[in-house]
UniProtKB/TrEMBL annotation:
Location, primary (coarse class): cytoplasm
Keywords: Cytoplasm, Nucleus
Record carries keyword Nucleotide-binding: no
Pfam families: Voldacs
Region listing for Disordered, in residue ranges: 253-295
A GO CC term assigned to this protein in UniProt: cytosol
Coiled coil residues, start to end: none
Record's subcellular location: Cytoplasm; Nucleus
Any GO BP: mRNA cis splicing, via spliceosome
Protein name: Genomic scaffold, ProqFM164S01
PANTHER family (alphabetical): CHLORIDE CONDUCTANCE REGULATORY PROTEIN ICLN, METHYLOSOME SUBUNIT PICLN
InterPro entries per UniProt: ICln/Lot5/Saf5, PH-like_dom_sf
């Protein structure tokens, strides 16, 4: 979450309708796409969580400076929910932006930091009316590197659009509401910024791993990946279509080169006769592991 000191300008973005109407000259350069924009929104959040995020707390202007002087004990016991009014919301393909013109400050939130977003029904503080808002969980990691046992720190807030918010174009569904469109915009932009792959997800260290042929000019070697090495002369893999080139009807290796040395699954290479009546195979040997046929 980064502080921004100047208000975003609509001219700095490509409107979504314009972006969808033509093929861009490049998918890797050019201004970000503006998926949704609304002025005079409210941010509903617990005050203790707001005080723990100075960049977001600055949206309150001078009030934020006064409240920052609260003691730590007061913050811990304070479950007061407040609403910050007059906040402009920008959903762009680059980042999620909140800006307060009155406070002349805002925040820029990377989409991977938004761990959860959903539609929510709620009552705004100092109001009895129930409204719909965009509920968000935003990660707020500490400056120090977290340990493996640390849980990700996050705050929760809800963005509530003004009562007179209009539908943005294009309208995809007849049941769309402005808040639904805000949710869809955040969903679309979040999909453009998938979470980075953790090193532990790539290789858990259990058992050998293998690389793909494309990574080593067609030669499979031990390394990263998830596939066993191919058999020599197979042009890749042994499949049902080319198995007769490597094994005879009895399961014996007939292809050139050494037979595969990697472990095969249970029962691999075993040749069984066709089963006859009552679990007795055609060679006359009874299979005791099978149930006898009953009337």
């Amino acid at each position: 979450m980064e502080v921004i000191r100047s208000s975003p300008e609509a001219s700095s973005f490509v409107p979504l309708a314009e972006h969808q109407s033509r093929t861009p000259s490049s998918f890797y350069s050019g201004p970000p796409v503006l998926y949704y924009h609304s002025q005079r929104c409210k941010i509903v959040i617990l005050e203790r969580e707001l005080l723990a995020a100075p960049a977001l707390n600055a949206l309150r202007g001078q009030e934020a400076t006064n409240n920052a002087a609260l003691s730590h004990d007061q913050q811990d016991g304070d479950e007061k929910e407040i609403a910050i009014s007059g906040v402009d919301t920008w959903v762009t393909s680059d980042k999620f932006l909140l800006f307060s013109p009155a406070a002349s400050t805002g925040v820029s939130i990377p989409y991977p930091s938004i761990s959860l977003h959903a539609l929510q029904r709620l009552r705004v503080p100092d109001s009895d009316a129930e409204v719909q808002g965009l509920y968000m969980q935003v990660a707020t990691p500490d400056a120090g590197a977290p340990s493996a046992d640390d849980e990700e720190e996050c705050l929760t807030m809800t963005v509530v659009l003004p009562a007179d918010a209009a539908l943005a174009e294009p309208v995809e569904r007849e049941t769309d509401t402005p808040t639904q469109q805000l949710y869809d915009a955040v969903s679309a932009c979040s999909n453009l910024h998938p979470d980075p792959l953790d090193q532990g997800d790539e290789d858990d260290g259990d058992g050998p791993r293998f690389v793909s042929a494309e990574e080593h000019d067609g030669v499979f070697q031990l390394g990263n990946g998830g596939l066993p090495p191919p058999v020599d002369g197979s042009s890749g893999w042994i499949t049902a279509d080319n198995m007769d080139q490597f094994f005879d009807a009895d399961g014996n290796w007939i292809a050139a080169g050494e037979p595969p040395s990697f472990p095969l699954g249970p029962g691999a290479g075993t040749v069984r006769a066709r089963e006859g009546e009552n679990g007795v195979e055609e060679n006359g040997v009874e299979d005791e592991t099978k149930w006898r046929k009953t009337d």
